[in-house]
Amino acid sequence: MAGYIALALMAGGFVGMSRSINGRLGMDVGPLKSSYWNHLIGFLLLTVIVVLFEGGSLDLLGSAPSWAFTGGMLGAVFVAVSSYVFPRIGAAKSALLIIGGQMIAGLAIDYLRGAAQLHVGQPVGVAFILLGIYLTRFSR
């Protein structure tokens, strides 16, 4: 379990770093082009990884439902929007807002799928995140 927690924290750090880097790129080339380059470079890297570790096999694509491929579209919109927002409101506020949105969506998805019961601590945790966003307004 500790390994999964460490990986999740590392991934969160990567999200923060990549959003800041793409925010800078977005200032130079625009948020849509920034998203384009982000996804093109990511595609090239993952192509190499799939070829090296999976032998280039795409056999499992047919077993996935068609709606499961919409995650890439959502990811592209996320990158474009965050590339626009990060340099304008800052990394800390952007990250907190993104985390708040992820928590709200995660709670809704788990609840609607019946995967988890809604406990009072969960919306309270989201409220603390939103409170943190509000409090960062005063840190200058």
Average pLDDT metric: 85
Helix content: over 70%
Biggest sheet layout: none
The total count of strands amounts to 0
Compressed to H and E, one letter per element, the order equals HHHHH
**Sequence stretches where pLDDT stays below 50 over 5 or more residues:** none
Q: Give the total of domains.
A: 2
Rg is: 18 Å
The CA-CA distance between the termini, in Å, is 38 Å
Q: How much of the residues is beta strand, in percent?
A: under 5%
Count helical runs.
5
Shape: globular
Assembly state (oligomeric): single chain
Can you tell me about this structure?
The chain is an all-alpha fold and 140 residues long. The chain has 2 domains: 1-89, no CATH class; 90-140. It contains 5 helices and no strands. Helix 1 crosses helix 2 (31-54), helix 3 (70-89) packs antiparallel against helix 4 and helix 4 packs antiparallel against helix 5. The longest helix is centred in the N-terminal third of the chain and has 28 residues, at 2-29.
